[in-house]
Specification:
The chain has seven helices and eight strands; from the N terminus they run E-H-E-H-H-H-E-E-H-E-E-E-H-E-H. By secondary structure, it is of the alpha/beta class. A hairpin with a 4-residue loop joins strand 3 and strand 4. The longest helix has 24 residues. The radius of gyration is 17 Å and the shape is globular.
Length: about 260
């Protein structure tokens, strides 16, 4: 079987569906596949950062189950969002005490959207936490983040599948997309977040799928179509969706390599 020197992992956005990324990482490690390069956006940036820091899949899953979004002191007063992104800074310091890309165990790329210039920006050096908060700042829910006098928000707005930073570094690229979509019913649009979620999916789908052909392995758990971006229930099932789909795709890939 071919040996790969530099394995890269692309992690899409997808809100709490991002827990499926963790299940995939668990399956990869069990198969002896350890990426040395990671590129992520939004929820993928959170998982990718924690993984690059050296946190185990169990610890990463705990992050999603233990980090409360709705503490009273996190609501915004004069910012463009429901929750103040920068009030999560202290939580993240617990996981990233050195707060730098250079301190990580893996080479990490985080994508965020420059709201003023209308371009996607890749962060890979210097301070870690602010770009991470910016990448995960879902519009309308989390406030944008100021970095070097520029305003940034969710990386998935323009690039929900940031494969480009890996292409010159890796001889094997594994893509994980946790944003499969299904056609909704009119009655599904009961709340403003249902509309925002649908808009996010529609923007992300064509942006991501055109890039799948550049991956050696694509892992997209289809069961996630029934799990919302903001749904914090059944996260164990979401993890398992990722784990089981990864096992399936890895088996197929290893079979091809042996031929």
């Amino acid at each position: 079987m071919k040996t790969y020197k530099n394995i890269g992992l692309v992690l899409s956005g997808g809100g709490f569906r991002g827990v499926a990324h963790v299940g995939v990482i668990q399956a990869l490690e069990e198969a002896g596949i350890i990426p040395s390069f990671v590129s992520g956006t939004s929820a993928g940036a959170i998982v990718g950062s924690l993984y690059s820091q050296g946190h185990t899949p169990v610890e990463i899953q705990d992050f999603f189950t233990k980090t409360s979004l709705l503490k009273l002191n996190r609501f915004t007063r004069k910012k463009a969002g429901f929750l103040d992104s920068e009030k999560f800074h202290t939580d993240l310091l617990t996981y990233f005490p050195k707060n730098s890309f250079e301190s990580l165990d893996k080479k990490l790329f985080i994508t965020a959207t420059n709201l003023v210039e209308g371009v996607s920006t890749v962060f890979h050096s210097g301070e870690l936490i602010k770009p991470l908060l910016a990448s995960a700042a879902f519009p309308g829910i989390f406030s944008p983040v100021m970095i070097n006098n520029q305003l940034y928000a969710d990386g998935g707005i323009l690039d929900n599948f940031p494969i480009e930073p890996l292409q010159n570094h890796c001889d094997l690229i594994i893509g994980i997309d946790v944003s499969p979509i299904k056609k909704p019913k009119i009655t599904d649009f009961k709340h403003s977040y249902n509309v925002m979620q649908r808009a996010y999916y529609l923007r992300a789908k064509p942006n991501s799928e055109t890039k799948f052909k550049y991956c050696d392995i694509i892992i997209q758990p289809k069961q996630l179509i029934n799990h919302g971006v903001f749904d914090t229930s059944s996260l164990d099932k979401v993890y398992d969706f990722g784990y089981q789909e990864a096992k399936l795709q890895l088996t197929s890939f290893q079979t091809i390599l042996k031929k």
